């Protein structure tokens, strides 16, 4: 039911997508004053910008006049944000600097208006938003520390070059994407034959933390199809951070996937690919271009294979034949942990509704 019901989708919008740090983009998109990007978490449009003093800011992308979307571009550079409807203008810090044609208005101050701020933070190369504001105590860094250490050992926060972004829309609930990425490698040998042939699946190990899971596998770096093996290298780390972030680090590649809900049975996956600087610097321009091209094709194949099963499960779950499934006790521990975390959020949401009714 939780994968197709619009009431659960709405409850998630009030809980999961508000009271957790939700990954939305990259720090390099907003590394200079005036740089910004926009996006949507469910039905909440946002702008992330770097203000004139290069301080990271985030706001609802909603004009306080009549509610128009203020910035329609996905990303860019700006000195200010001007609403295209009636020209109300906002600074990069969200302040309302020019409300137009308000002569004679009463009980209104520009200072009392402006773009509504959103809590924002970074972790590694990523930007996160929390719609419910800053938590009293932010334990995020602490909670993901073991994963951070594992990733940093291979290269994560620095020494990585952003190569490109790819987006996929899937006809499935967002949780099926996280479930699929959290099954402890269970599906690899069945769904990803090509990828599996470059991994030593007998070495697969899984670690489950409070808000993350980490799956580590040794790669078969020697022999075989060299470009494919080079892509995976000697070690692969596949991880999920609650609720919507998949961080995959293998060989010279870091691929980060942000998962966002578009509806109860539709999701968006935003892939950002990074390549290790030292690896890229050792290649000629042509070698590098070929390697990137081949790797992106391989990655696309893996995603197509995942899309097929995620969408297949969505269709199957919508049948009257399916009620509840079972967890495989060993490998699917991380899926179970994800569902427990989700249940905590949804229960808290239901309890707060009871109180306010
Ligand atoms: S809605 Fe933005 S200026 Fe009117
Ligand atoms: Fe997969």
List keywords for this structure.
single chain, 357 residues, alpha+beta, Rieske Iron-sulfur Protein, Naphthalene 1,2-dioxygenase Alpha Subunit, Chain A, domain 1, 10 helices, globular, binds fe (ii) ion
List of distinct ligands in this structure: FE2/S2 (inorganic) cluster, fe (ii) ion
Which spans have pLDDT < 50 for at least 5 consecutive residues? none
Mind telling me the CATH superfamily name of the largest domain?
Naphthalene 1,2-dioxygenase Alpha Subunit, Chain A, domain 1
> What is the string of helix and strand elements?
HEEEEEEEEEEHHEHHHEEHEEEEHHH
Separation, N- and C-terminal Cα atoms: 24 Å
Question: What's a concise summary of this model?
Answer:
This protein is an alpha+beta fold and about 350 residues long. The chain is about 30% helix and about 30% strand. The chain is globular.
Explain what the structure shows.
It catalyses: choline + 2 reduced [2Fe-2S]-[ferredoxin] + O2 + 2 H(+) = betaine aldehyde hydrate + 2 oxidized [2Fe-2S]-[ferredoxin] + H2O. Its cofactor is Fe cation. Residues 21-129 form the Rieske domain. Helices cover 30% and strands 31% of the residues. The chain is α+β, with helices and mostly antiparallel strands and 357 residues long. The strands form 4 sheets. A 7-stranded antiparallel beta sheet has the order 11-17-16-15-14-13-12, sandwiched between helices. Strand 6 (80-82) and strand 7 (89-91) form a beta hairpin. Helix 1 packs across helix 10 (333-356). The two termini are 24 Å apart. The model has no long low-confidence stretch (mean pLDDT 95). Bound molecules: FE2/S2 (inorganic) cluster and fe (ii) ion. Residues 63, 65-66, 68, 83, 85-88 line the site of FE2/S2 (inorganic) cluster. FE2/S2 (inorganic) cluster is lined by residues 63, 65-66, 68, 83, 85-88.
């Amino acid at each position: 039911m939780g994968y197709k019901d619009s009431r659960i989708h709405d409850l998630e919008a009030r809980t999961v997508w508000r009271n957790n740090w939700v990954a939305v983009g990259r720090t390099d998109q907003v590394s200079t004053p005036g740089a910004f990007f926009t996006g949507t978490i469910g039905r909440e449009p946002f702008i992330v910008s770097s203000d004139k003093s290069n301080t990271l800011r985030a706001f609802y992308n909603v004009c306080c006049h009549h509610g128009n979307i203020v910035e329609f571009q996905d990303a860019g550079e700006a000195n200010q944000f001007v609403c295209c409807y009636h020209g109300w203008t906002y600074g990069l810090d969200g302040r309302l600097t020019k409300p137009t044609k308000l002569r004679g208005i009463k009980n209104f101050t520009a200072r009392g208006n402006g773009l509504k701020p959103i809590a924002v933070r970074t972790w590694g190369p990523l930007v996160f938003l929390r719609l419910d504001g800053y938590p009293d105590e932010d334990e995020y860094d602490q909670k993901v520390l073991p994963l951070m250490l594992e990733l940093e050992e291979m290269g994560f926060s620095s020494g990585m070059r952003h190569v490109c972004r790819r987006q996929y829309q899937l006809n499935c609930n967002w949780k099926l994407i996280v479930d699929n990425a959290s099954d402890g490698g269970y599906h690899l040998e069945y769904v990803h034959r090509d990828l599996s042939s470059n991994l030593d699946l007998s070495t697969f190990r899984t670690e489950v933390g409070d808000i993350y899971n980490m799956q580590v596998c040794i790669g078969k770096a020697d022999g075989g199809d060299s470009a494919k093996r080079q892509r995976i290298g000697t070690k692969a780390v596949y991880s999920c951070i609650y609720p919507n972030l998949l961080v995959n680090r293998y060989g010279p590649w870091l691929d980060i996937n942000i998962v966002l809900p578009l509806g109860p049975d539709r999701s968006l996956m935003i892939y950002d690919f990074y390549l290790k600087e030292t690896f890229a610097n050792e290649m000629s321009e042509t070698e590098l271009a070929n390697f990137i091209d081949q790797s992106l094709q391989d990655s696309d194949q893996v995603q197509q294979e995942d899309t097929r099963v995620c969408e297949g499960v969505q269709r199957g779950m919508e049948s009257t034949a399916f009620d509840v499934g079972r967890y495989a006790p060993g490998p699917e521990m991380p899926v179970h942990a994800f569902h427990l975390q989700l249940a905590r959020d949804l229960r808290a949401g239901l309890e707060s509704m009871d109180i306010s009714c």
